[in-house]
Amino acid sequence: GRGTGRAGSGATAGGRHVRPTGDLYGELLMYAAPHTGHRPGPPSPPGLAFGAATARSRDAHRQPALQRLAFRAMGTRVEALLDAPPSAAVRAAFAFVRAEFERLERVFSRFRPDSELSRLNEAGSIEAGPDLRAVVELALAARERTAGRFDPTLHDAVVAAGYDRTFDELDEHAAGRPAPDPVIAREVTLRGRRIELGPGVRLDLGGIVKGYAADRCAQMLAPLGPCLVNAGGDLAVAGSRSHGSWPVAVDVPNREALTLAVASGGLATSGRDRRRWRQRGEERHHLIDPATCRPAEGGPLTVTVAGPSATDAEVAAKEIFLAGDDAEHQADRLGTPAVIVHPDGRVRLTGGLA
After folding, report:
1. 178-188: b or e for each residue (b if 16 or more CB lie within 10 Å)?
2. What strands lie across the sheet with 246-252, from one edge to the other?
3. Cβ neighbours, 10 Å, residue 129
4. At what angle do helices 327-334 and 310-321 cross, to 10 degrees?
5. Which neighbouring-strand residues pair with 248?
6. Cα(29)–Cα(2) distance, rounded to whole angstroms?
7. CB atoms near residue 60 (< 10 Å)
8. 12-55: per-residue pLDDT in tens?
9. CA dist 75 to 22, 99, 102, 128, 292, Å?
10. Partners of residue 338 on adjacent β-strands
């Protein structure tokens, strides 16, 4: 996911942060206005529809004010919106959301040498805590069902591409490293609480952990009211809004934004348009093709996907993006509601969206 936010009559369920200045990735704008209609897409879908929410944004003042929290964690902007009156319980819940994101960052950051993930990558085998164990299991299951397109074992390939430090610290003049051999098996074994990595294997869970955190926090907020949690463009929605869905607008270069009405589940975007850098004069991006262990070439510019959860949407967005020129067919085969933007500006709605 990726993004920053804008205060005012609406709130922003932003796109992916591309650098610390807060540029919007694909500017996924979530207006705090009602949007009533939605049409679910198959299979086991979130509540989702395609429409024009911006026309309704002028009615936002007639709805109760949303409670809103915004802060930075996991290298991006995090935002929580809660459709409930202000209360001590809301303040306590928001404090929990902030603390939970910060806690999970301490577990999963590959840039912190003391994180649990870094300790696993260094030692090759540890008795894992419940969150690391759960996310590794989710990531391995995702690798299996996507036939390897989603792959948590690409840490060394991301590092070889130059993404070896936080994005604001990247050095385009740093010496390049050879990409790992994509043919070599990258094994990960789970035995109870123990995680064991095969020789030379290191994990990067950044492609799933923001969705995991958003899902956890949305479920925690839901008893207080309908809510949306946005972790840099990876969105989790929980609870049923009495006056309609959450309208989320997907910004498209050189044309009017498209709007999705999200009633439940999650939304995520993968793309190569913003999180880019140069390494020794060569353009790079962070989405690694497991077939080459290099940044993916060709195919869509961005893929925005809805799923039963933010975690599921993150996985599906990467699977469809990495299908390259076959991305549209892959989304239709999966029955996944998706907005696919091509480099030439073409936009395709798939998986039941029309």
Report:
1. ebbebeeebeb
2. 29-30, 246-252, 255-262, 48-51
3. 11
4. 140
5. 30, 260
6. 11
7. 17
8. 333 432 222 222 222 233 333 322 222 333 333 445 544 433 33
9. 10, 15, 11, 23, 27
10. 305, 350
DSSP string, 240-298: --TT--EEEEEEETTEEEEEEEE-SEEEEEEESSSSEEEETTEEEES-EETTTTEE--S
- Give tens-digit pLDDT for 167-211: 444 455 555 566 665 657 689 999 999 999 999 899 999 889 999
Measured between alpha carbons, how far apart are the two ends of the chain, in Å?
Answer: 24
Tokens of 274: 């913003």
Identify the DSSP state of 58: G
Going by C-alpha positions, the residue among 44, 104, 94 that lies closest to residue 71 is: 94
Q: What is the C-alpha to C-alpha distance for residues 238 and 219, in angstroms, rounded to an integer?
A: 6
Strand partners for 126: 195
At residue 37, the pLDDT reads 29
Report which residue type is found at 235.
Answer: L
Residue 59, amino acid: D
